[in-house]
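Reopening this ticket.

The earlier resolution said the output was attached, but the attachment link was broken on my side. Pasting everything inline this time so it's all in one place.
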Amino acid sequence: MSDKKKNFIVRTITGVLFVAVLVTCFLRPQAMVLLFALITGLTVWEYSGLVNQWDDIQVNRFISTVAGVYLFIAMAGYCTGLTPVTVFIPYLITILYLIIAELFTKAPNPINNWAYAMLSQMYIALPLSTINVLAFQTGVEGGYNSILPLSVFVFLWVNDTGAYCTGSLIGKHKLFPRVSPGKSWEGSIGGAVFVMIAAAIVGWLLRDSNTAMSIPVWMGLGLVVVVFGTLGDLVESLFKRTLGIKDSGTILPGHGGMLDRFDSSLMAIPASVIYVFTLSIL
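Inline output:
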């Protein structure tokens, strides 16, 4: 068996298991919170390890990871109404520690350490934690609704598949060659069309559900996911290009690292929160 065929098989198996685990976790709120807290921790840990490879950068990997996981759990507790807003105080203390600690590390460039430590929270921990805003909604029976957060990921997967297929067939005009030479305008438009169809189907299937979202609103959400998911992909590509690496890690065989797998969602999730709040849906 050729290496190319082996890689395809490994990538397919990993992809199927990944989707299965992610979809299954949304069946119960506890499973969703635990899995995404783990995802947040692994992603911040991976990111911190990558930036620490640069000269004159030494982010506190452990504290940054603990802070990211705590923020996610605190957000879940606050969104479910189980904890008061004071649950965020330990997180704020941790952020202050990461800043004040540079007074004593004698690092050659503390500004770099501050910048990259804060980026781990703003780029990874905060966006991922906003999935709790989509999942835990007032006015929904039981306070938990898996439809919105799951739909964001479904739209991302449909967009990736549609963009790949369309781009492979008719892609000629590069979308952003400086950052990601493989992406084309034709592929991006094709992915968007597939998502619009998928969003319309979701809206029709859920027309009598408690989501209170019409088909046009669902299609608007799909468009938001397409645009910001693509931007998230480009941002991570720029990050990797700046570091001079191909994959952010090897934790997911055939798919790279955690940043490789969740790059699109880092922009799509908070953008979706802004969209639904703008329309006063939640």
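Reporter confirms the inline version is readable. The first strand starts at residue 174 and ends at 176. Residues 215-243 form the longest helix (29 residues).
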